[in-house]
Design a protein that fits this description.
9 helices; 273 residues; Rossmann fold; alpha/beta
């Protein structure tokens, strides 16, 4: 387990002048579950891929624990990633899929089997270890993909929209399982989703991005009660928050024929905008 730090991390794709991720600053605590959320094209998946080493970092730095991993290859970062498409080998059994990374790393068979069985027990997959992926449901396949990450005992889990291929009912139960499992293992996790319900129910903290810029990072409750700006206020919450423009008057704002009292600091901030 380890902390993760994005220190003004920036990604600019070749041929573009606008950063896909612009000066991202986030400190993620050891064992924390952080969710990156935002509309399509906001930079959330790019941020995750930068942390994974799958995207170059054009400015700033990324640290895992005390190590600067900004320019390290993915294999040297001690991370494990769970993708949207489960990426399972169809000709291998569940056990072989879960232990494949350890086999490539040269771990002996007895140790691989032990770790696979431990992970399978955690994920309720013990009875499926000899099955092929085609004999599993979508939720079971996703658990196999998670098991493959767990057996590696990484410092950081990265999850890129792992539930988007599941039906609505299964998505609800699986997100509960993922959140519970993360808290049980205590492994620092960065989770990407476009689904704000997932973000608000799973994360210790939520980071909202728009056009490559971090809008707010806070606990789900604080983000709902005290959004940092109009975008966060309109994006977070289902159904969406109602936003109404009202004129500022002495001591408050005019709403219809009434004047609603507003404190001076809020009035000053609104008038400056």
């Amino acid at each position: 387990m380890a902390t993760v730090t994005f220190d003004k991390a920036t990604r600019v794709y070749p041929g573009s002048t606008k950063p896909a991720v612009d000066g991202l600053d986030i400190d993620i605590a050891d064992g924390e579950f952080l969710v990156l959320v935002g509309p399509s094209g906001c930079g959330k998946s790019t941020s995750l891929r930068m942390l994974a080493g799958l995207e170059d970092v054009n400015g700033g730095a990324i640290r895992i624990g005390d190590r600067d991993v900004t320019h390290l290859p993915p294999k040297d970062r001690d991370i494990a990633m769970v993708f949207q498409n489960y990426a399972l080998y169809p000709h291998m059994s569940v056990a072989d899929n879960m232990g494949f990374a350890l086999k490539i790393a040269g771990v002996n068979k007895a140790e691989i089997r032990q770790k696979v069985e431990e992970a399978a027990k955690i994920l309720d997959l013990t009875e499926y270890l000899d099955r092929k992926p085609k004999a599993l449901s979508g939720g079971q396949r996703q658990r196999v993909a998670m098991g493959r990450a767990i057996v590696r005992e990484p410092q950081v889990f990265l999850m890129d929209e792992p539930l988007s291929n599941l039906d609505a009912k299964l998505r609800v139960s699986t997100r509960t399982q993922i959140a519970s499992l993360q808290r049980r293992l205590g492994i620092t996790t960065v989770y990407v989703t476009h689904d704000q319900v997932e973000a608000m129910t799973m994360g210790d903290r939520v980071a909202v991005l728009k056009d490559g810029l971090l809008q707010q990072v806070d606990s789900p409750r604080n983000m709902y009660d005290k959004p940092a700006n109009l975008f966060v206020a309109g994006f977070i919450g289902s159904p969406a928050m109602n936003l109404v423009e009202v004129p500022i008057t002495d001591g408050g704002v005019k709403f219809g024929n009434s004047v609603v009292p507003v404190n001076r600091d809020a009035l000053k901030a609104a008038s400056e905008k």
